[in-house]
Backbone:
């Protein structure tokens, strides 16, 4: 039987990643420019990884099927992003964010990785602010927080109801800065069709240029799949039709493990109205749909 090894470092939960970071092998600055990294996807994950790796000195190639990196589906996110900065002094801590996230994930998430996420959550906000993301602020100028997802503390950083759009604009400008400097090569309107394995390691991709139809081979010492969610495998979804798991599926066919495929977010805006007890958000989006102000693919309009 195959064993899914997520390679979480040894040690106590507070030390796993910190210890790993202080002891893992490093690449000499002079050698970084000889290492090529392929990133499939230019949403919040891909754009952030690409700009950070390029800033460190690696040679990066980014692929996305949209006409611009700016059109990744991250643009749709609304509510906000959680970080344990404890700005409200309401008792928040890294441990509380870790615990709430594990609980919110029905105790199924990998604890080591969730702890790391909680640990770096504050830095992520700082990075976004440095990239120019206009998070909501108090009248005094400090960053504002709201409570989100039923938590007992206010730790959500937000930009009105368009946090994803503002975050993506920030990540996009960091990415385009590196494109301008020549450290990132951007391949928009390119669809990854397959991954290339050499000696059991993923060392490249096959992609189609969606304008000319030409097939291309690209080499990378490492390949990052940042190809987003896959809500469209379900009948009801407000995700863009491209969020359809094709990239991860190809990697899976080449031997990569796929953990918890059932574990995906269903957004309340895609639940059809079935009674008076449904949240206003759903009803509001439903009335927008019926108005034709939110486009719903024909095959999904059964309930209108
Ligand atoms: C309506 C909505 C509201 C949300 N609200 C929140 C919220 O309040 N807070 C929160 O934390 N999260 C929220 N989320 C979730 C969050 O937005 C996503 O998890 C996150 O943005 C995903 O980012 P990503 O970079 O992984 O993927 P995406 O932004 O979807 O990017 C995927 C990228 O992969 C590329 N790609 C995919 N397949 C291929 C291929 N075969 N070849 C080439 N390129 C490919 C695409 O072109 C795209 O560039 C929300 C999501 C939605 C839809």
Residues:
């Amino acid at each position: 039987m195959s064993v899914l090894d997520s390679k979480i470092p040894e040690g106590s939960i507070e030390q796993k990643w910190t210890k790993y970071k202080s002891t893992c092998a490093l690449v000499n600055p002079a050698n970084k420019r000889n290492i090529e990294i392929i990133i499939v996807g230019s949403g919040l994950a891909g754009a952030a990884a690409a700009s950070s790796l390029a800033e460190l000195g690696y040679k990066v190639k980014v692929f996305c099927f949209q006409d611009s990196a700016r059109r990744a589906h991250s643009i749709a996110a609304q509510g906000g992003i959680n970080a344990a900065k404890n700005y409200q002094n309401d008792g928040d801590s890294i441990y509380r964010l870790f615990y709430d996230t594990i609980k919110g994930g029905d105790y199924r998430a990998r604890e080591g990785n969730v702890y790391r996420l909680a640990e770096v959550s504050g830095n992520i906000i700082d990075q976004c602010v440095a990239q120019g993301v206009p998070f909501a602020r108090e009248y005094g100028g400090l960053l504002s927080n709201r409570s989100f997802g039923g938590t007992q503390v206010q730790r959500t950083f937000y930009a009105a109801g368009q946090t994803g759009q503002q975050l993506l604009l920030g990540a996009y400008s960091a990415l385009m800065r590196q494109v301008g400097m020549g450290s990132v090569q951007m391949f928009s309107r390119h669809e990854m069709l397959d991954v290339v394995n050499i000696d059991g390691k993923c060392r490249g991709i096959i992609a189609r240029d969606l304008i000319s139809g030409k097939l291309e081979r690209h080499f990378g010492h490492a390949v990052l799949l940042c190809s987003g969610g896959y809500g469209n495998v379900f009948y009801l979804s407000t995700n863009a039709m491209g969020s359809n798991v094709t990239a991860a599926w190809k990697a899976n066919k080449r031997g990569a493990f796929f953990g918890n495929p059932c574990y995906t977010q269903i957004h309340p805006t895609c639940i059809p109205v079935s009674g008076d007890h449904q949240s206003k958000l759903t009803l509001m989006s439903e009335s927008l749909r019926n108005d034709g102000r939110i486009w719903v693919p024909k095959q999904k309009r059964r309930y209108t």
